[in-house]
Design goal:
247 residues; alpha+beta; six-stranded antiparallel sheet; two-stranded antiparallel sheet; 48% helix; 20% strand
Length: 247
Amino acid sequence: MIQVIHRALDIFELLLNNDNKGMPLREIADELRLNHSTCSNILKTLADRKYLEKSSVNRYYKIGPMLISAMSDNSQSYRLIKASEEPMKELSKATNENCTIGILKDGIRFSLHQVLVEHDLNVISKREKPVYDTSTGRVILAYLSREDQMNFIQAYGLPDDRVWPEVKDEQSLLSELDVIKKNKIAIQISVSHVMGLAVPIIVDEIGLIASLGVYLPEVRLFGAKKKLIIKELFAAQSRIHQNLNEG
């Protein structure tokens, strides 16, 4: 048996059993009873190959885009991640805010890939969140066919009025989704005062496959920041669209 493979698998299992909240090197090594230097080398290799990712904010290791793509049972996810990596880095650098790319999976908004920046006040978003609770989820729902939207509502119900105050009933939800699709952007303020802005990611021969979003504390959205984020979101969307349709 090759010991290093077992150790890598142990690391994957540990992070997944921790709901992929992320863990620092010290905790991973101690939990698995590994030499810290040995563990560091394994983690660095896995991160270099993108099977893990290391947060620039808290230095925690989490499951990375390559493994997430494999877990999604969808080769399209790998293509999407590769097409989005550089545009997302540029988006995060231009706005100095976190960004994420999400898909719809089993009725949940699932974040395939995130780019985080360091702030004294920051937002760490879960990989899986209810569709109604995120701007990325709302964009995805807005671009479904009316039949699929009705099926989603039947399966998952309407949003809590604290999550989406403008929605009072089925018709008002559908109207809100129509506005998002018309404007090609969703802007949301969560109950915890997190601002999310998201746009659709579309492949010419398929249609919508994901949503790209920026999220930040509401208190940091002042002055021309909102206009900057919207401008950079659409610029990143265009670059991802070009990468996908050339791939």
